[in-house]
Design goal:
By secondary structure, the protein is of the alpha/beta class. The chain has 3 domains: 3-190, 3-Layer(aba) Sandwich (Rossmann fold); 231-243 and 256-402, ANL, N-terminal domain (Rossmann fold); 411-510, GMP Synthetase, Chain A, domain 3. Helices cover 33% and strands 25% of the residues. β24 (434-444) and β25 form a beta hairpin.
Length: 511
């Protein structure tokens, strides 16, 4: 199976069934139109002289045609590279030069940024003006008579390249084959029992693996559909869900916190809870650990169950999920394996018993081909038996539920004791004034590392550092409590809304 054959199958079986829908307008693209547009994109790339296997990038916001271009480029046998438009000019410059891309589809929002970037680099790249709702401006008028490549596509051909965040060094280009991306979508389908009747709401950016694989690829695999918003709007969120009859959505913990805060501040503007409960099967949380206090408050306010999951770019997003039956879920766990194998290993990469803490390793059809032009990092990450070592730490219970406690590089080692930052995060989130929280380690001459934390507060609330320190000490004891808690207006986040713990650690340590 390839993305091409999958789109062809969907077009043959469900040609007139809508697949991509706009949250803000009446625009929609059915499966038959998706196939037609994908064939147009293939001819367009032929016409532009972009060969199969070469890389085409997207520098665009969310929209139906952003998703169409992403799928169409894969359909054509080229490699699609969604550029992280909020990563900063320096990182985008690096990715453009490192990826050897040949063409960039760029919307008007980012034209000036791209001009400034190309003033600093020497790469020669074809740039196509594009629109998130209508596609390339010259697609319809271009002469699309290039000779068709009739050679068959293979499932092991590269379909997608995504770059890691680069918070601990240069970002790495993750190569995912057609087999990988379809497996990533299928793992999500299995975990959430998705069918052709399900419809997701995509509010996460399409340059993030969560949106690409979970919100787009999973509905393609299941034959379902997806509503795409240009950008996240907390005030319009529930109207989009209800008006477009969405049955599920994927979000990050920060979005759940924002929805809670908006509802508590504006209870009269909340959704019809009875109608919402009849329509929305579940909300999916991913990309970062979900604080139990956030889950409890959200479910109490809206009556919608949150299914906690875990995903990673190198594994085409989805690797763990709690069961869709809420009574079988375990609070604080990222769930059990669906579609791949997961185990916990020690520093020698040997599997360890249940409840022992170690590194999380994954094996399955969703595991990446490797890192682009970085064989050393690939060899270090994937062993000869196909196990990928995630860099996340956690433990597994006797029922196979995995509990993620942090990243190896984020682990706090104070006086020889390993302390997981998430344990401190969860306590801070229990304070009624805290909107966002994150703990981290800083160098200390006596203990090796000392614990610090940063929080942002909910609007119209007041709280000081001493109150928060007392709150932590009562629940964690002196050893595990932060020495300092910084109260900030906002915590730094990545493109998916995930709080950047290491970024904050470096910033506050240097000031």
């Amino acid at each position: 199976m390839t993305v091409r054959s999958l789109i062809d199958q969907r077009a043959q079986a469900y040609a007139n069934t809508n697949f991509l829908l706009s949250a803000e307008s009446d625009l929609c693209i059915n499966f038959g139109e998706l196939q037609h547009h994908s064939r147009q994109i293939e001819k367009y790339l032929d016409h532009r002289g972009i060969e199969r296997g070469q890389t085409a990038a997207l520098m665009m916001g969310n929209g139906c045609w952003t998703a169409t271009l992403m799928l169409g480029i894969m359909y054509s046998g080229r490699v699609v590279l969604p550029l992280n438009v909020v990563a900063g000019a320096e990182q985008i410059e690096y990715v453009i030069e490192h990826s050897d891309l040949k063409i960039i589809f760029c919307s008007s929002h980012y034209q000036q940024l791209l001009v400034e970037i190309f003033e600093k680099i020497e790469s020669v790249v074809d740039i196509v003006q594009c629109n998130e709702d209508t596609g390339p401006v010259d697609l319809a008028s271009a002469s699309l008579t290039a000779e068709k490549n009739n050679s068959p596509m293979e499932s092991n051909q590269t379909a997608l390249m995504v770059y890691t965040s680069g918070t601990t060094g240069r970002p790495k280009g993750v190569l995912l084959s057609h087999k990988n991306v379809i497996a990533g979508g299928d793992n999500t389908v299995q975990a959430h029992q998705l069918t052709a009747q399900d419809r997701s709401l995509c509010v996460l950016p399409l340059y993030h693996i969560n949106a690409e694989m979970v919100s787009i690829m999973a509905p393609l695999v299941s034959g379902g559909s997806v509503v795409i918003s240009h950008r996240l709007s907390i005030s319009k969120f529930w109207n989009w869900i209800l008006d477009h009859q969405c049955t599920w959505y994927s979000a990050v913990p920060t979005i759940f916190s924002y929805l809670i805060e908006h509802q508590q501040s504006n209870p009269e503007l909340g959704p019809d809870k009875t109608l919402l409960n009849k329509q929305l099967r579940f909300a999916r949380s991913a990309s970062a650990a979900l604080p139990p206090a956030t889950r409890e408050t959200f479910e109490s306010l809206f009556g919608v169950p949150i299914i906690e999951t875990m995903g990673i770019s190198e594994c085409a997003a989805h690797i763990l999920s709690n069961p869709i039956n809420r009574s079988e879920c375990k609070v604080g766990s990222s769930g059990i394996a669906f579609g791949n194998e997961v185990r916990i290993v020690d520093s020698s990469r040997r599997e360890i018993p249940a409840h022992a803490q170690g590194e999380i390793a994954v094996r399955g059809d969703n595991i990446m081909q490797g890192y682009y032009k970085n064989p050393e990092a690939t060899q270090q990450a994937i062993d000869d038996d196909g196990w990928f070592y995630t860099g996340d730490i956690g433990f597994c219970d006797n029922q196979g539920f995995v509990f993620v406690t942090g990243r190896i590089k984020e682990l706090i080692i104070k006086g020889g004791e390993n302390i997981a930052p998430r344990e401190i995060d969860d306590v801070l989130y229990k304070h009624p004034s805290v909107l966002e929280a994150t703990a981290f380690g800083v160098p200390d001459k006596n203990y090796g590392q000392e614990i610090m934390a940063a929080v942002s507060l909910k609007p119209n609330t007041t709280c000081n550092e001493s109150t928060l320190l007392e709150h932590c000490e009562k629940r964690l004891g002196k050893v595990k409590s932060p020495k300092r808690i910084h109260i900030l207006n906002e915590l730094p986040k990545g493109p998916s809304g995930k709080i950047q713990r290491l970024n904050l650690q470096q910033t506050l340590t240097s000031t």
